[in-house]
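Quick one from the shared queue. A colleague (R.T.) flagged IclR family transcriptional regulator as missing a structural entry in our internal table.

Convert sequence to structure tokens.
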Amino acid sequence: MDRSEYYNQSIKRAIQIMHLFNSQEKELSLAEISRKMDIHKSIVYRILITLESEGWLVKNPETNKYMLGIKLLLLSSVVLDDLVVRKTALPIMKKLSAETGETVVLTMYSDGGAICIEKIESDNSIKITSQVGKFFPLHAGATGLAVLMGMPDEIRKEILKRKPLEKFTEKTEIDPDKIIKLVEEAKKDDYIISVGSVDPGVVAIGIPINFTQGNIFMGLSITGPEYRFDEKKISFVVDELKKAKKEILLG
């Protein structure tokens, strides 16, 4: 059965507009949205007014541009609360953070990035700021690269070559082929390390957690300031990450 004949064009366009917003384009004007959608301004305007009235979009009075509304957070919290793996991982992550003294982040692939679905903050005085719902790039930093590691080759390549990759620091690699090679090498050891590729002076060590039966790609990572990560600490963290991964997969 061809389900396309049942599509509601206005709803489809509204969803497509919502997908235009990302970490690089947090605000968009009517003209920008009209151009990206290749739809007349009058049609886009009616959709924007509807989305704004329902709280899905808000208009910045200073820039006269639209951005995603707070109501999305309410829906995301409902989804996150219902994730079984998040509930399973939480006590394991607390233990991991206590043993390593660092921040532990659980991420899952979503819409071209790695979204944080759970985080345990370090008790140390210097903390790495992240939050549940935050998006991490897949190509930069072990937090995102760990998610990338668990993907089939064809999906990984398609994502990395979809559009130009953003450079966050001088250490950020943006060549898709080099990133693919880096990930392939890291898969042999089942973990990956990054230093300052997203935030200067920050070390991240990530490990993929795969649920291939549901095509769910996740990553577990530990992050902290570079000065706390000597060779001995890195070896210890990698061992603890691998133990935590086994516990999470066993449920």
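Residues 203 and 229 are 7 Å apart (CA to CA).
The chain has two domains: 3-69, 75-250.
Added to the table.
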